[in-house]
Specification:
With 621 residues, the chain is of the alpha+beta class. The chain has 4 domains: 3-58 and 477-618, no CATH class; 63-208, no CATH class; 217-326, Alpha-Beta Plaits (2-Layer Sandwich); 331-410, Alpha-Beta Plaits (2-Layer Sandwich), CATH 3.30.70.1450. It has 30 helices and 10 strands. The chain has helices at residues 3-21, 26-39, 45-50, 55-73, 75-84, 91-106, 111-128, 134-147, 156-167, 179-194, 196-200, 206-209, 217-223, 246-249, 251-254, 300-310, 319-326, 349-352, 354-358, 393-400, 427-444, 449-462, 469-475, 478-496, 499-511, 515-530, 539-554, 558-570, 580-588, 593-618; strands spanning 230-234, 258-264, 278-281, 293-297, 313-315, 331-338, 361-367, 370-372, 386-392, 406-408.
């Protein structure tokens, strides 16, 4: 092994190890590895930057803009709602319709976006059938991953494999060339989930064990143990808190307490018929008055400390009365989910000015089953976090319309449904037309596939489906874009130093005894094992060049082998952190990691066996 090869292998191994470790951003790790290869002279400047100009990278970036226009338009909402209407009936029928809907939409649109849109709809349908949403949300996430392999643009590995096969002069794949084996993989996944997978779904997830099968507002309060932390305090006239603005008291930070609402006596000049206590939402600019009765949320010792400091008096209350008042026709309680790539990710509620923006209080955070109820305001949010919020229904409805950063997964008022801002009344038709044009261009192959996608992205901006170029840039998830570009450079270094040839020769010696089916199964298995730990299908970048050389050495067509790698890299099902879809449904469905591990591994093995037997029927060895 030469010194450049040793350095390259060391950098590649360290990069993959750090990505699996998961403490740092994957794109940052890959970029550091790429820069080191450039500084050591193993990569020239042109080779180091080549990945960033690669058609695959540009295509993936443009697809984020296309997806943004589609979701902004409301097209997916309408299609998803329409398809799910056919799920009326038995649990088996609804499960089938959920998977078909999620899978078919993910073939053309972002799988994560599809899951974001469908979670509230699926939860609502499950609750109406008096069933736990956890019976459907995990199959929805799996269907989005399986359905994405149906088309050329469904996943990054599909695009990458297509580019490699075309650049090597082997074959040019069109838009629907992945569809036959994609349908086989999707059908296998559906069959598994309707049979063995259905039996493996948790019968009593965390939400069900806490008596929230209907996820009503009162039941959410019970699950989070909200009622045990509610306290009424009376403000006497001589208290130093009188006249203070709520924002100036900094109660969440000084006392770890949230002031939820204020009961205030009506003015004396009002008519006797109208003289009663009014309930006021605790807004940041609200000034406290004498004889106000404040409802606070926090630990007993912290509330007692507040009462002593400001000479406040405890006010006893009937627990049943507070339950009726806390969740009423005016005030409500619900959960919201932080979406992937949300502007709120890694921010605190204080940074977001959540209370000022939405006039609602965050009482607790559910992070993968762990309930955070202290120092909520300073906790940095992560994707998949569920926030328990309390406020007036009209303000909760405002949150439900903010689909760019979060989605409502619990109950709001009975009339609340997902709302999406339409840029114009004909936006869904325009978005559908642009998507159809892109599909036609990709299908006939008259122009390069990257140009077809870029044209669609530009049309989304020009027609207003994406409101501006600034929004277009914001909608691009730069982590996978930069990660893929950097990993292409690292693998290029492995090729230049002879590492790819060396590894492929080792594989060729081993798989020479197994035959072509063994080669296909071996690369599928290796890719499958790495995919849950390395995000965005990057395993395909590493495995594809090795498989290509190994196939050529053994005199086997590389097409079926690379097809298997594309699917194995796309379908990462055995980890809740493998895909954003998995992360989202883990919180929304109250799953545990073991639910993904057992189900995901069995499903991937089953799909893999079916594919090893069927891929050669479409793409012979």
């Amino acid at each position: 092994m030469t010194q450049p090869l040793f350095i390259t292998v060391l950098i590649l191994v360290c990069t993959i190890a750090c990505i699996i470790y998961g403490k740092f951003r994957a794109d940052l790790i890959a970029l550091v590895g790429l820069v080191v290869l450039g500084l050591t002279g193993i990569l020239s400047l042109e080779e180091l930057l080549a990945g960033f100009a690669n058609p695959v990278v540009i295509t993936i970036a443009a697809l984020f803009i296309v997806s943004a226009g589609i979701f902004n338009s409301g097209l997916v909402d309408e299609v998803g709602n329409y398809l799910l209407k056919f799920g009326v009936g038995s649990e088996l029928k609804l499960l089938l319709i959920v998977m078909i809907t999620g899978g078919l939409l993910s073939a053309f649109f972002s799988g994560t976006g599809i899951v974001v849109i469908l979670i509230p709809i699926v939860v609502s349908m499950a609750l109406k059938k008096k069933m736990s949403p956890s019976r459907y949300l995990l199959p929805l996430a799996y269907a989005s991953s399986l359905g994405a392999v149906l088309t050329l643009i469904g996943t990054a590995p599909n695009i990458l494999i297509s580019y490699i096969l075309q650049s090597e002069g082997i074959v040019k794949l069109n838009f629907f060339d992945f569809t036959p084996i994609g349908l086989v993989a999707f059908a296998a996944g559906v069959v598994f989930m309707l049979t063995l997978g259905r039996k493996l779904l948790p019968e009593e997830p965390l939400a069900a064990r806490n008596s929230v099968k209907e996820l009503s507002a009162r039941e959410l309060a019970g699950m989070y143990k909200v009622y045990d932390r509610l306290h009424y305090l009376h403000i006497p006239g001589n208290s130093d808190i009188v006249g203070e603005r709520l924002a100036n008291l900094h109660l969440p930070f000084q006392y770890e307490i949230t002031l939820i609402e204020i009961k205030r006596k009506a003015k004396e000049k009002q008519l006797p018929l109208l003289s009663k206590q009014s309930v006021i939402s605790a807004k940041a600019d609200e000034v406290l008055h004498p004889d106000d009765i404040i409802l606070v949320f926090g630990e007993v010792e912290n509330v007692e400390r507040l009462a002593v400091d400001y000479e406040l008096e405890y006010k006893h209350f009937n627990p049943e009365q507070i339950k009726k008042h806390f969740v009423s026709s005016k005030f409500g309680l619900t959960e919201i989910l932080i979406m992937p790539n949300s502007n709120y990710e890694n921010q605190t509620l204080m940074d977001m000015q959540f209370r000022e923006k939405y006039r609602c209080n965050v009482l607790a955070i559910n992070r993968n089953g762990e309930y955070i109820q202290t120092e909520v305001g300073t906790e940095r949010l992560k994707q998949g976090d569920a926030l328990l919020i309390h406020g007036e229904w009209k303000n909760i409805e405002r949150i439900s319309a903010d689909l760019e950063d979060m989605i409502v997964i619990g109950s709001a008022s009975e009339e609340v449904v997902e709302q999406r801002e339409r840029t114009q009344s004909k936006a869904p038709i325009i978005a559908a037309a642009i998507t159809a044009l892109m599909t036609i261009l990709l299908s006939i192959g008259a122009i390069p596939f990257v140009l077809s996608v870029v044209i669609a992205a530009l049309l989304m901006v020009v027609t207003g489906c994406v409101r501006s170029m600034e929004e277009a840039y914001q909608k691009i998830n730069w982590e996978p874009v930069l990660l893929i570009a950097a990993m292409m450079g690292i693998v290029r270094a492995l090729e230049n130093t002879g590492g790819v040839r060396l590894i492929s020769d080792w594989f060729a010696i081993f798989f020479d005894y197994t035959g072509p089916y063994g080669l296909l199964a071996g690369f599928y298995l290796l890719t499958m094992l790495l995919s849950p730990f390395i995000p965005y299908g990057v395993t395909a970048i590493v495995m594809a060049p090795i498989a290509l050389l190994c196939s050529n050495t053994l005199g086997i067509s590389p097409i079926p082998i690379l097809m298997g790698i594309a699917i194995a890299a796309s379908v990462a099902l055995s980890s809740p952190k493998a895909t954003s879809s998995n992360t989202l449904v883990m919180t929304a469905g109250e799953y545990q990691s073991k639910d993904f591990v057992l189900m995901g591994i069995l499903l991937q093995i089953f799909v893999g066996i079916v594919l090893v037997l069927t891929i050669p029927l479409f793409f012979p060895f």
